Automatic annotation (TrEMBL):
Domain Major facilitator superfamily (MFS) profile stretches: 21-621
Name used for this protein in its record: MFS family permease
Species of origin: Rhizobium paknamense
Membrane topology value: Multi-pass membrane protein
SUPFAM superfamilies: MFS general substrate transporter (SSF103473)
């Protein structure tokens, strides 16, 4: 593209019309990102509602992959709506994308869970996520193109950086609404049904967004091109079927966008997932920390967009990639020490060993969520991963049953296929033995209180000798008389047990520290200031790579194919490289037995983009985008 002087645009201030364009484009896009990111912010509750039939490790991966489903289809949305935007116009394409996004989000809020409609629930959920992804695939390229085509030369980085804030502001808005509802109704009610309210509120945002989009005019560059009759008749084939344009798209993807994507999703989404699911920090506290970091860091999108007009897009993006590559490991390790010091101390002093037949140990990456990992090795490693326990797999004899060694304790696993009807009892025994060993080794596990009906009290005491309970003392203490039919309904008794008792009601005792084990981060030990500082640094890395990227992509493609040309590499990078990051990193960590091992995924991808970008990517800030 031609290189032009920038003096006619860089000195003047922003006009009222330009402010309106940026505000209208940005606000509508904020609402669209809000809709899209509700799923990521509420992944724990969605997993429990729609994927409850799967083991926790598989459920986490499946939940993240359903989140990623929306990203996987984004490139197809880029092609469909990019073509429409280059043929029909930027404004009308905006209206279509926001309608699809808003309707799909609202339907998630009223979709019954798997307990009600079975396998249909996750299938419909994934379909709705894919519709969201299609809509978002057409949104970003249009917003960035629309704003850039209104911006004067020498100011495109600053103007388009406001669009770059929309993804983070959309996430920030979703977190604020979630936290507000949680505080208003309580955690239990929110987990049961309140998580649906933010999805239902999207219908209000949809109405506002459609009204805003109706006030917008078509971009001057598109109107000029249309009046001159220089539109592309086949934007897709021209953008990607001609090598002169296709090579630009390939370079944009591999030299910038792929690396930008993994830094973005590491800094915002994987960091949140790591806090909640690996470090076991309370979900509400983790959301508040991320919200504070976003509030502190978001202004840097505009700062780096403005700076890119001065020194160029490339130096800032490459610096962000390099910093992420060099510091991710120390930052995430520091996050562990600040977020769950007891877990960090236990991991540093106690490491599990799984001795197993190598043929029984599989990579537990399950893209459909339907595979069952049944071998003794897989069951053992899944249990350790669930509790964030580092482990090493040592080859054992062929055909042998996997054994877990934790400190002085050695615990035998089981094969669920061979166990048959005994699998449930063996699983309960394995989990209890491992959890007791972890607790004794210093891992921060706690046990909830449990309600025990009188008919099962003797068996409960016999099965839990570590509690040192006395049946007579328990029966002499406080109890609640509950009808047996309610005990059956609450699954505290089976129908056969109730019939055998021959009672209309019976005493129920609450046993402190007698329930299921769970790993926790002690709120009193969570160091808020260091955690927020680390999260803010990660957000600043995001702003470095993402702030200038819109201007760079717009400047790389000619007007007639700009919407299509820039949208596809952007959404392949962010939809595929970025969207698959949380699930891939989690599965890599689970396979290796190291909670940090998954960080190699963003580091390697960022490294590839850094090398290609430094060698082949040209500076674009002075390109003439009207050419």
């Amino acid at each position: 593209m031609a290189n032009v002087a920038t003096m006619h645009g860089s000195a003047r201030g922003m006009t009222a019309e330009e402010r309106k364009v940026i505000f209208a484009s940005s606000l509508g896009t904020v609402f669209e990102w809000y809709d899209f990111y509700l799923y990521g912010s509420l992944a724990i509750y969605i997993g429990a509602t729609f994927f409850s039939q799967y083991p926790e490790t598989t459920r986490n991966i499946f939940t993240l992959l359903a989140f990623a489903a929306g990203f996987l289809v984004r490139p197809f949305g880029a092609l469909v709506f990019g073509r429409l935007g280059d043929l029909v116009g930027r404004k009308y394409t905006f209206l279509v994308t926001i309608l699809i996004m808003g309707a799909s989000t609202f339907l998630v809020g009223i979709l019954p869970g798997s307990a009600t409609i079975g396998i249909a629930a996750p299938i419909i959920l994934i379909v709705l996520r894919m519709l969201q992804g299609l809509a978002l695939g057409g949104e970003y390229g249009g917003a960035a193109t629309y704003v850039a085509e209104h911006a004067p030369h020498g100011r495109r980085g600053f103007y388009t950086s406001w669009i770059q804030t929309t993804a983070t502001l959309g996430l920030f808005l979703s977190l604020l609404i979630i936290l507000g509802i949680q505080m208003a109704m309580g955690k239990e009610a929110f987990a049961a049904w309140g998580w649906r309210i933010p999805f239902l509120l999207s219908v209000v945002l949809l109405g506002i967004s459609v009204w805003i989009r109706m006030q917008m005019n078509e971009s001057p560059a598109f109107k000029k091109m249309k009046e001159e009759g220089t539109q592309s008749k086949a934007p897709i084939s021209e953008a990607f079927g001609q090598w002169k344009n296709a090579k630009i798209a390939i370079l944009a993807l591999l030299g910038a966008v792929a690396g930008q994507a993994v830094v973005w999703y590491s800094g915002q989404f994987y960091a949140l997932f790591f806090l909640q699911n690996v470090l076991k920090v309370d979900a509400q506290a983790a959301n508040i920390m991320v919200a504070i970091a976003l509030a502190l860091g978001t202004m840097f999108f505009v700062v780096f967009g403005w700076l890119s007009d001065k020194i160029g897009r490339k130096p800032i993006i490459m610096a962000g990639l390099l910093l992420a590559m060099l510091t991710y490991f120390p930052l995430f390790k520091a996050m562990t020490w600040a977020g769950n010091p007891a877990l960090a101390e236990a991991q540093a002093t106690v490491k599990a060993t799984v001795t197993a037949d190598p043929a029984d140990c599989n990579f537990q990456f399950n893209p459909t969520g339907t595979a069952k990992f049944t071998t003794s090795c897989d069951i053992a490693t899944a249990l350790l991963t669930k509790n964030s326990v580092p482990y090493e797999v040592v080859p054992g004899a062929a055909g042998s049953t996997a054994a877990i060694k934790l400190g002085n304790a050695e615990i035998s696993s089981y094969d669920s296929i061979k166990a048959g009807a005994n699998a449930k009892a063996l699983d309960a025994s394995l989990q209890k033995s491992v959890n007791i060993a972890l607790h004794d080794a210093g891992y921060p596990l706690v046990r909830d209180a449990v309600k025990v009906p009188d008919a099962k009290l003797n068996a409960f005491i016999a099965a839990n000798p570590e509690l040192k309970l006395n049946a007579e003392a328990v029966r002499g203490g406080p109890s609640t008389t509950v009808p047996t039919d309610k005990l059956v309904a609450d699954k505290l008794l089976t129908a056969d047990e109730a019939a055998a008792a021959g009672m209309q009601s019976m005493p129920v005792y609450t046993i402190a520290n007698g329930g299921a084990f769970k790993m926790v981060a002690d709120p009193a030990q969570v160091k808020w200031v260091p955690l927020v500082a680390i999260l803010t640094v990660l957000v600043i890395y995001v702003t470095m790579v993402y702030g200038p990227i819109a201007a760079m992509l717009v400047e790389m493609f000619p007007t007639r194919i700009r919407y299509t040309g820039m949208s596809l590499p952007y959404h392949i990078g962010n939809g595929w490289f970025g969207g698959l990051l949380p699930a891939t990193a989690f599965a890599m960590s689970a396979a290796k037995g190291d909670i940090y091992y998954g960080l190699w995924y963003p580091i390697v991808i960022a490294g590839i983009s850094f090398v290609i970008g430094m060698l082949f990517l040209r500076e674009t800030k002075n390109n003439d985008i009207d050419a």
